[in-house]
Every structure is written in structure tokens, then in C-alpha cells.
Request: fold
Amino acid sequence: MKKLIIYILCVLICAFSGLFIYKKMQASPYEQTAVPYIKEVLPLISTWQPELLDDYMATEVLERVLPSARINLMETLSRIGELEKIDKVQFKYKSAANELPDVTRPVVTYQLDTLYSSGEVKVTISLLDKGDGAFSVYRFNFQSEALTP
Reply:
């Protein structure tokens, strides 16, 4: 029985270690490019101006979302207030975007702990990797008590 418990613990430790290493390997190519891009683009998005959002969103996304919906979204998000600081940027996962036939591009997702004038906000932002260190915003999510009805 004691050997079985030790065996199970070893398997669990190896599995979690492998998962950690895999996640680190996925994140490492983006640390020098995606994180600075996020720190550049989030303050601009947080001005809540729809025309600025249009400059940074992936064209594949802009084609699917009506301009009036983007304006309404920015008006709603403006209740969060002004961005005061970005505390923590954490890699979550890497996936793929398949908008075009026979074309798959990486999408990297990060979670941020931020502080806005309304309080703490969890931001999840996904970036479409356009290659050569260039990105565009693929999707984002703001979780804040200021947005609750």
C-alpha cells in the first residue's frame, strides 16, 4: 500500500511538472513581444474610444462585429473608469484561429490583474500572432464589479 501511494505521488508530480514545463515552453516565444504589446495597447483601449479599438482589433474580428455594437461595448466598459496600473501579466494558453480556409494562426491569451479608478479588474486578452512579432487584439474580457447591473 505504501509503494502504491509513493507511485501515485510520483506520477502526479511528473504530470504537473510536465504541464508546467509545457506551458512555459508555449509562453517563452511571446514574453519579449506579446507582453510589451499588451502594455502598449491596453491603456489605449482603456480610453474607451471605439475608433482606437478599430485600430488594434484583428480585421477578422472587426468584420464580424457591427460598429454600433463596438460603440455600445465601449460605452459600457467606460463604467470601469481610467486605467491606473497593470499589476500582473500572466500567460494562460495558446490556441489557434481558423477564420480563413487553410490558414491557422496562433492566438495567445493572457490574464492581467489591473487597477482602474473603479477598483480591481481582471482582464483577459487574446492576441492574434500576425508573425514577425506583430499582433492584433483578437478578443478581450473585463471582469469588474463596476459592470454588474
Q: What stands out?
A: The chain has a mean pLDDT of 83.
